[in-house]
Amino acid sequence: MARIVVVGAGFAGHTAALYLGHHLGKRHEVIMVNKYDYFGFVPSWVWVGTGRMDPQKTIIPLQPVYDRMHVRFVHAALTAIHPEPEEQFIVVEKVNGGGQERIAYDYLIIATGPYLNFAATPGLGPHEGHTYSICTLDHALQARDAYLELVERLEKGDRAKIVIGTGHGTATCQGAAFEYISNIHKDLVRRGLRDRAELVFFSNEPALGDFGIRGVTARYKGRLVTSAEFVEAVFRDFGIRWEIGRAARKIEPGRIYWEDMDGNFGETTFDFAMLVPQFKGHGIHIAVRGPNGEDLHDKIFNASGFVIVDGIYGLPYERLERNPDAWPAVYQNPWYPNIFAAGIAFAPPGPISVPHTTPNGTKIAPAPPRTGMISGIIGRIVALNVIDLVKKGRMTHSERMTEMFAACVASVGDSLWDGSAVVIVVHPVVPDFRRYPNEGGRDLFVTHMEMGLSGAWMKFLIHHTFMYKFKGLPGWRIIPE
Amino acid sequence: MPASQPQTARPTLEITDRDKFWMNCKLYQLWRFIVLNLKILKAVDQSKRS
Question: Distance from the CA of B44 to the CA of which of A146, A194, A347, A443 falls in 20 to 30 A?
Answer without folding.
Answer: A347
